[in-house]
Each structure stands twice: as C-alpha cells, then as structure tokens.
Amino acid sequence: xxxxxxxxxxxxxxxxxxxxxxxxxxxxxxxxxxxxxxxxxxxxxxxxxxxxxxxxxxxxxxxxxxxxxxxxxxxxxxxxxxxxxxxxxxxxxxxxxxxxxxxxxxxxxxxxxxxxxxxxxxxxxxxxxxxxxxxxxxxxxxxxxxxxxxxxxxxxxxxxxxxxxxxxxxxxxxxxxxxxxxxxxxxxxxxxxxxxxxxxxxxxxxxxxxxxxxxxxxxxxxxxxxxxxxxxxxxxxxxxxxxxxxxxxxxxxxxxxxxxxxxxxxxxxxxxxxxxxxxxxxxxxxxxxxxxxxxxxxxxxxxxxxxxxxxxxxxxxxxxxxxxxxxxxxxxxxxxxxxxxxxxxxxxxxxxxxxxxxxxxxxxxxxxxxxxxxxxxxxxxxxxxxxxxxxxxxxxxxxxxxxxxxxxxxxxxxxxxxxxxxxxxxxxxxxxxxxxxxxxxxxxxxxxxxxxxxxxxxxxxxxxxxxxxxxxxxxxxxxxxxxxxxxxxxxxxxxxxxxxxxxxxxxxxxxxxxxxxxxxxxxxxxxxxxxxxxxxxxxxxxxxxxxxxxxxxxxxxxxxxxxxxxxxxxxxxxxxxxxxxxxxxxxxxxxxxxxxxxxxxxxxxxxxxxxxxxxxxxxxxxxxxxxxxxxxxxxxxxxxxxxxxxxxxxxxxxxxxxxxxxxxxxxxxxxxxxxxxxxxxxxxxxxxxxxxxxxx
Length: 696
Description:
27 strands, alpha+beta, rod-shaped, about 35% helix
C-alpha cells in the first residue's frame, strides 16, 4: 500500500488554484483540472453555475454528466481534446447544461492549458459562467441583423426595380423589365404575373419565367375568384403566407401552380390616380410569411410599378396623338406627276438610343403646278414635340397655297417666312423649295437655312448642287422682310434631284460637309429606282439611329411618254448691242433648220424677235434667249426669253394707227402655246411650236 501510495502522481503545490475575487464578483466560477490525477476541482461559484451542492460532486469530470447532456458532453470533450492535441494554449466554447429544475441554460467555459517542458498537457485552469442572457443577446442581435438585411434587401429590390423602370418609356418596355430573368432577380421573386385592366376585365400581359402560365387566365373578369382579381376589385394587396393558405383561399389557381413549389405570394394592385390600372403577382419559393415591413416595402414596389405604367401609358397616348397629328399634317398621298418618278420617306427620331421614337417637325410635299411644272418642298421646324408638328402642318399648307397661286419661288419662301413669324411661335424652320419644269429640265431652287440638294446623274455619279441661301423661315422680325435668291439647276432626263433634312446627313463626331460627302457616295452607289434608293437611305438612317427626324424626297426626270430635252441653245443679249441681237437671230434660224422645223422658220423667228425686242424695250437690263427641242407625244420647239423685270406683259388693244400693243397678239397668233413664268427677281416669257407635222 505504501509503495503504491509513494508511486501515485502528486498534486501540484499550488493546487487547487485560488479564485480571484473579481471572478466571484462577476458571477464566474473557476475550475482546476489536473490531467495526471483526473481531479476536476470547482470553486463555490462554479458549483452554483452547475447547480450542484458540494456533497453531490466527487471531484471527477464524469460526475458533471448529471448536468451536462450527453451530446453537449461529447462536443466539449472533442473541443478540449483538439486543443490539447494541436498545441493550443487555451480554448473556449458555449454549451448547454440542465439545471435541477430541468431547464436548459447556456454556459460559457474558457480554459488555459499548462504544459511541461516537453509540451505535454498537465493541467487546465479555467472559468465557467452562466451565458443564458449573453446568448439571448447574441440571438437578438442576430435576429436584428437578419431583419436589417431583409429590410435592406427589400429596399434594394425597390431601388433596383425603380432604377430599371425609370428607363422604360412604353408599356412593352415596362413589361420587358419586369418579366425577364434580371427583373425577377430585382424583385426577389421566383415568378410573376401582371395584368392590365381593360373594359372591366384583366388581360394578362406578362408572366415569367417560362412554364408558369396558367391556362384560362389570359383574360379574366374582375369578379372571378383569383387573387389578382381580388386585388383589383378591393384596391388592396393580397398576401398569401403559406402553401396551405394558397390552396385553401384560391384552389382554382393553386391546382395549376403546384409544380412551382410556391411557399408564399403577394398580389399588389397597380393604382394610378385612385383607380386600378392593373395588378402584379409576385410568387416566392424561398420564404414563408410577410412581416409588416415586408408588406410596406412591397406596397411601395407596387406603387412604383404603377407609376411607371401610368407614365408609359401617357407617353404612348401622347405619341399616338403626336404621330396622328404629324401623319395628318404630312401629305396623305403623293400625286402622280407625268414626266417624273417621285419617292418620299419619313423616319421619326430615336430619342435616347434604343428607347423609343419621338415626333418632330420635318416634312416634305409635292405640288403639281400648271405648264408641266412641279414644286418639291423639304423642311424642318425646330423641336421634337406636338407643337413642332402643328407648326409644320400649318407651314406646309401655306407653302402649298402660295405656290399654287403662281408666286415665284422667292416670293413663296418670303411669304412663308412672314407667315411663320406672325404665327406667334418661338419656332423657326429651315426649308428648301424647288420648282421644276419637267419639259425643259430647269429647276429653280430657293433655300432658307436648309442644306443643299444633291443631283444624281444618269451615269450614276452624284454631286452636291450649291444653292445660294437665305436665313431660316420665321426670322422676318429680326432681319426685316427677307429676300431669297434663286438658283437654277439643270435636270436632264434620267437625273434625280434629292432633297432631305439634316437628320439624313448628320453623324456623331462628323461635321455637316463630311455627312454630305458620305450621303453623296451612298446615293451614287445606290439603286437606280428612286423607291429602292429611298428605302436604302432610310435603312441607313435607321441603322445609325440618330436623334433627329429624317424627311426625304427624290424626284427623277424620265423620258417615256413625257417631254425630254434633246437640244438646248442659249444667247445673252444686252441693250444697245446690235451684234448680240443679230447673233441671236442667226442662232434661232440655225436651230430651226437643224431641228427639222424649217417650214416654220419665219413664224418662230418672228415670235422670238418679238419677245427679245419687248424684253429690251420694256426693261432696263439684258435678256437671255434659250431654245430647246422637246420630245414626248410630239416634238416641240420652245423659245424662252428671260429678263430681270418682275412686271408681267399685258396684251393691249392697238389703235388703227398704233405701232405698240401688237406684239403679244402676234405671239398668241403664231405660237401653239405661250406663257409667262416668274424667275426669282425677273420673269421668263416662253412660246412653243409643235414641229412634228411641219417638218420641211
């Protein structure tokens, strides 16, 4: 016995360690566990933590099993064994113990491992304390953090959805934002449905993802037993917090969506101006129930979606009105004009890239005029709104009226400018008016701040036709009554005149001249047919998706069945220059003979001489004599005498002894047809002779 006692492990000299009074004051018990003997000493406060009386504890750790549940004991043993094995100096953990009354209490233990010189664990000194309140506080903080995270997530849902919807301008774009995969992610839902109220019914306009549509619900009545119908009917949301509740309240719908594993759902009315415009249903497969805060956030989400929908509906209504107004203001049809092919196109601007179309003040017009002439108009009123479209319509009408009244192009443009100023609007407009004589190919062009026209020639080449310009329309008050110079462009058979607004020319990062060069090359390489060419140009504008409207008018002079010019001779005659007058007479005589009209030589020379003489006698400037041979259904020789006076000739009755007043009577008698045209600041008196049956 003595030998055994002598060989038994001895306790450390300072064992057991004395507890620090501070530990006791903080309701912490201490323990000292001698690993060699296995004795586990606890102080009085530790006994209280374990709810053990001194006589109930024999100093062995195994005796604590009466208070420490088996699972907790095994977990504690694992933690301590791992700390001793991996060389740790301390460990700490929470565990539960069962008190005398059977209740479970959380306890915190921390131990310091003492080792010998070889690193072998010999002793553990530590503390134990009741941690029930601490764990409760931790759980409360954790729950609060979870609530904060849920609140943040829901708030983020609203912010993300609102940000995405802010870019949606049409109802279709709102629906697209909501129904795609990213939209569902933003909304935090597994799937959704959305319907709009139409004539007392709900029409489903969105559902997603795929395979979530319920047959028979595309159009439903508001009084049917569906959650969306109830939300619309009552103007209040419907929250479904469990599958059981869904099945009980809406069995008709539930039987079709069981495969979606829905655990909760929220159906929100979409209310705008105190009336329902639709409803949205958000279905979840990862949540149960909705807190008061969840409900508030979802209601706010529904309100945001409703506002976006209302904004989109108002935008579409305004666009329908504006487009209807613009279409009403633009010519409904383009008249067929003998002698030319015409193509017109209009493309509305893309405002904001791929986010929609807008309305503007670009326009075109084609005006049939007497004498085989036609007026072509292209213009652009400042702005992209219904006001611009309204101003455009009025301006188009007055331009057409002034041209139809027979005013020369410069007068048409000047009067239109005064009209726009007197319209009491802050808008101005650019415009180009071209009056083409399809018989001669002469085109008189007036430009008011607009870009120059292009001419595509029969050989496929294309060039810019420089036109002297004036200020935009509507600036009469600032600059007085505006004068618009007239330029002349020759349009031979097969040539095409192109008029367009700057939306077809302007390109990001390029100036106007570069844009015109690009357009010129595009026209030169484009199709011969004006309709195909117009389609090609509009396709290019569509691909470019510019932020300005495009109006386009193409006029191609052709030959079959229409007048064509096969010859053109011209002579300038100055006052007091008998040689020039003699040369003009020689030119006329030679042309008549060359073109096979020698049998009518006397009549033609007499009429031409009379027209030139009148121009020199009754005006202060010179005259320009032009002869043209025209072919069509018949062959005609045309004589034109142009001067700088705007005073129109008048036929007068000559007295018995008078020598004046017989000139126009002579012209009327000898020519097959004659007339007067205004030419900018002057006029042109012309006469035509049919020569097809008088050749000789």
